[in-house]
Amino acid sequence: MNDDLLAALPDGLHRVDLGGGRHAVAKVRTAAPPGFFAAEARGLAALDQSSTLRVPAIHAVNAQGIVIEDLGTGRPTRDDWERAGARLARMHAIKSERFGFDADGWCGDSPQDNTRCADGHRFFVEHRLQPQASRARASELLAEDDMRHLARLCARLADILPATPAVLIHGDLWRANLHACANGELALIDAGAVHHGWAEADLAMLTLFGEPPSPFFAAYEAESGIDRSWRERTPVYNLYHLLNHLNLFGAGYQGSVREVLRRYG
Q: At 240, which CATH number?
């Protein structure tokens, strides 16, 4: 498939016949933000290079869309979940000297600043929490009191979250982005938010909107050696995503955001 054929498709999700019994999925959005699909392609490439979890192959990409391998849809077994948990742990073992990425990305429709930083707490404050909170304040979705709670949380972030290395993470890893392929294998999709960050941030988001079954986490913990106390910290990691949802979807997320801000700030 070439860019000309991609450009000819209308907005939406399409199953495309590649011939020879092969199919692909085309995602088309003519008014996509600049760099939206390029970020997804970069993220998929980085995940693929990790040789851990499966990712769809890329057939074509341009400013208005991307064409990727059709993975099908299946039902994972317990073994599939265990393999996926172990493979995610191996992906999270791929370290970087700095947090961030070689280009900015997108978390949903929100721009994600991936400017490199050696300090993980500073990165999370300056490139994740503060930009989202400032955006919400400008839209009057947060009040000045909320911002004071956020400032207090940020000031004590190093006391709440452990200083762990920067590793390769998906960055937007809610359960739907851990896709069950036709054969039951779990794959990573929608990779526009990939960067080097905290492994626990990926784990935390996997608990935000429904989570994988317990064998997945048991296999992850066995492979990585991580302490189960990571679950106690999930609200702070997930504050970034709750703020993002507040900005993208509106005041329905105010209560969840404020609960975290008042608990930790």
A: 3.90.1200.10
